[in-house]
Amino acid sequence: MMIKLFRALRTLLSSTAITDMFKWNGDNMPTIFHVINLDTGEQIAQIPGPACFNCHDINTFELKMEDTTTIVVDICAYDGHLRRFHLDLTTNKCIEPYAGARTSQVVYPISYANSLVPVQFELPRINPYHIGKSYRYFYAARSPPDRFLDALIKGEIESKKECAFWVETFTPPSEPIFVPKPHANGDNNSIEDDGVVLSVVLDQKRKQSFILVLDGSTFTELGRAYVSIHIPPSFHGNFY
């Protein structure tokens, strides 16, 4: 993907969308993965991979086996670019029927790039103690091609399938946030999905939002707390 100067100037001087300044070159250019040493800031490698647009990462970690070290990158990847998010305000539908994000696992040395689960989703989160480490579970919001977010999912890396859903009609969720239980500190005795999942959900019928609390293991609802206002589905949040 490239930013074209003429398109950028036209966007700044008009009311067109910011995404109009981008030009997609995925048909003839690869995606470049940059490997950076976090201690020194030195660039270790530039690795060409399958062409895609990526907005959110799930996790990245190293696998050491005998004499080799493998870098695993799990991402939400698009075959196109962000025009998928252009909405027709008269129909509440996407203007162009772009496919949603596919979950891809890219392995370096580049040996394969495959799908993690057969569900399109965005805004993935994992147990924070497993960031940069091998992990098993992730949580995300389902993102079908014809709308943005409509359900929450729990995915399982080893089996490459979705293992739990939370969905209700007229209740679009926001990003799910996994909060480990206080005793689950990420050590070898901790269970990775021992915690709760929080999400701000808009109840369109009541015109109010609520904080949804799900069991991180079973994905069953533990409770919900309504607030007095409606909060549109948002991108990112955190628990304090």
The poorly predicted ranges are 109-113
Structural class: mainly beta
| Tally of DSSP β-strands | 18
Helix residue percentage: under 10%
- Strand line-up of the largest beta sheet: 5-6-9-10
Estimate what percentage of residues fall within beta strands.
35-45%
Count of separate DSSP helical elements: 1
Order of helices and strands: EHEEEEEEEEEEEEEEEEE
Kindly give the count of domains.
2
* Rounded mean pLDDT score: 79
- Backbone CA Rg: 19 Å
Give the N-terminus to C-terminus distance in angstroms: 36 Å
Largest sheet, in brief, is: 4 strands, antiparallel
* Approximate shape: globular
GO biological process, one term: carotene catabolic process
Signal peptide: 1-17
Family: Belongs to the carotenoid oxygenase family.
Pfam families: RPE65 (PF03055)
Describe the structure.
By secondary structure, the chain is mainly beta. The chain folds into 2 domains: 30-115, no CATH class; 128-239, no CATH class. 4% of the residues lie in helices and 44% in strands. It contains 1 helix and 18 strands. It has one helix at 5-13; strands at residues 2-3, 22-23, 31-36, 43-49, 53-65, 68-78, 87-88, 93-94, 102-108, 113-115, 121-125, 137-142, 151-156, 161-166, 177-180, 195-203, 208-215, 221-226. The strands form 6 sheets. Strands 5-6-9-10 form a 4-stranded antiparallel sheet, with no helix packed on it. A 4-stranded antiparallel sheet has the order 11-12-13-14, with no helix packed on it. A 4-stranded antiparallel sheet has the order 15-16-17-18, with no helix packed on it. A hairpin with a 2-residue loop joins strand 5 (53-65) and strand 6. The longest helix has 9 residues, at 5-13. Residues 109-113 have low confidence and may be disordered.
